[in-house]
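Example 3.2
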Amino acid sequence: MLKGIDPLLGPELLRVLRAMGHGDEIAIVDANYPAEEHAKRLVRMDGHGAPLIADAILSVMPLDQMVPHAAYRPAAYNDPAAREPVFADFEAVIARREPKHQLSVLTGDAFYSRVRAAFAIVASGERRLYGNLILKKGVVHPD
């Protein structure tokens, strides 16, 4: 255990987050996603929901301020306007941790290609459909 670090952030995930550079992306994917096949680096967190994992990650990792969009969700049923309950949970986490950002939508293969290209994938236990999220790492500014 560490003071000030969310206990959900285990040594494997902390190592990945620390190794990521500015502009690298990490994907949190639901329990149905073929994470093992698509990941360059895989962190398994099967017992936890995707919004909870996103909250833990964003407690230590800033989103990229140099781009217009730094958080992405998939378009449910290939419809960017379709709203799944998990999206509201992602939006609440982003609003609390990174209020300058909003959750953007990527349709179809644009989302899944980006997951495959991510620095790492976190395989969650999220059972809600489309419970996937991509986060682009920003910089930690000097004091």
